[in-house]
Amino acid sequence: MSKAPQASTSGPIKKADTNPFAESAYRPKRRFRRRFILLSAILITAGGLAVVFKWLPVNNKINDQLNAQLRVSEISALETVARQEKKRLLEIYSAFIQKNNINADGWDFSAPTVEQLQLLRRQAPTADDLLADYLVKLDEYKFLKQRIGDLESRLGTSRLVRPGDTHFKMAYDFLISQTGRPDEEVRRILQQIPLQEPLLPGFKVWNFWLVDGFCTFVTQGDAPLTPEEATRQAMEKQRQEKDQALASLNSLYLIIGTLKDLQARQVLIGGFLKSTQMGEIPVSAFRQTLDLRNQREIRIQSANLHLKKIVRVVVFPGEFHPGVDYDLRISPNGRWAAVTIRKADVFRGRRMVIAVE
Hints:
The protein is about 45% helix and about 20% strand. It has ten helices and twelve strands. The chain has helices at about 15-20, 25-55, 65-100, 115-125, 130-155, 165-180, 185-190, 225-250, 260-265, 345, and strands spanning about 160, 205-210, 215-220, 250-260, 270, 275-280, 290, 295-300, 315, 325-330, 335-340, 350-355. Strands 7-4-12-9 form a four-stranded mixed sheet. A three-stranded antiparallel sheet has the order 1-2-3, with helices on both faces. The chain has a three-stranded antiparallel sheet with strand order 8-11-10, with no helix packed on it. Helix 2 runs antiparallel to helix 3 (about 65-100), helix 3 (about 65-100) packs antiparallel against helix 5 (about 130-155) and helix 6 (about 165-180) crosses helix 7. The chain is elongated. The termini are far apart.
């Protein structure tokens, strides 16, 4: 980074003036980026809030729920910007550490100590811009975090979410301790309030008892996700679990193999002078499934079982009746066989072994 011309060229030039990673080298760039980030965040926040709240003024004192919502929305907007800045900060930091082979195990890249910064400066090559970019981005991130802290201090006192906390319990405790309302009334109030679930450790919960009633908000704090992202993630997990449960209830579980192999594995037991039947098979052994909501046919290829041709197919247990519960076909050349389910309700959630000869 080149310096602006000096008023006088006489006298020795200080080392800091020519060091591309000294404080003076990145100060102008840092100031510009810091102002740009802050201005962008303010414009984004103000623009969104103006549409929703028609430019209602925000006073220093929290008087009503709308006022509190405005403050929380401003914090949330800056938290989003800060998270993006932190991600970029990590990218630059990781690239510099890897390039210069620096052992930085256990370091906090977003809050390095003075000694750690001095070490990074000593390791920086003269023509390497990565450290300068890192220092600028670090300064921007610290500025945003300080701005968020200032806004939070004016908003009031929050409670940091810890493992096991729920929004209901935190709001309930606040109302009981701060308002003195009886249990029945507190529960009735909370039934009318949207609560954030799940709460992640690191979230911050803000509770207010105002002139127009109780309100509660959650901000990201130090958690890895925003409250909205945590909710979407939880809903997606619930949807997947529901789909898996429905698939399990509507599936037929299968083991398919040659008669000889199935007997050797004790999947089928019996044989000479004894009727062949299913052994005690663990559920985990049934690795093939047929979702009966959209599939009804089980196709068996002779080549997959290392057979020249399929001559005979037997379905276990014997309580499944061919021609009634299912149909069985073998191709004329014996290359394949098919078991077609006729009565899906008979097979839902059941286990079947298909022996091929």
